[in-house]
Amino acid sequence: MNNPFSQLGDLKKMRDQAMQIQRELQGEEVNVEKNGVEIVITGDQKIKEIKVNGKGDNDVKEAVNEAIKKSQEVAAKKLSQMQGGLGGLLGGGQ
User: Fold this and answer.
1) FRET partner for 89 with CA separation of 20 to 30 A, picked from 7, 57, 59, 71?
2) Is position 68 within any domain?
3) For the segment 32-84, what is each residue's pLDDT rounded down to a tens digit?
4) Structural domain for 35, as ranges
5) Distance of alpha carbon 31 from alpha carbon 69, whole angstroms
6) What is the pTM of this model?
7) Residue 51 lies inside a defined structural domain of this protein
8) Helix or strand holding residue 73 (H, E)
9) Whether residue 92 has pLDDT greater than 60
10) Residue 5: which of 90, 94, 70 has the closest Cα?
11) Quick check: is 14 in a domain?
12) Which uninterrupted H or E stretch holds 28?
């Protein structure tokens, strides 16, 4: 007989791994300089700095971070819809 609780342990392990990767990504930085624009972004897609022709532009940085946040919310909503389908896999589908 299948133990549905064993699948919960696997899901927790996957969640813990995902959270660890997210923490690691927060510590990573990518620096891109192109056409007089310099951008520093973290691995978890947070803009740390934007310079245009050597001058900082906080308004642009805030707008880009807001756009990234909204795109992440859209992705999270899609993922939560997908996870809703996991109920059948965990024993609710019989």
Assistant:
1) 71
2) yes
3) 998 888 989 888 888 899 888 888 878 888 888 898 989 888 888 887 777 66
4) 29-85
5) 20
6) 0.57
7) yes
8) helix 58-84
9) no
10) 90
11) no
12) none
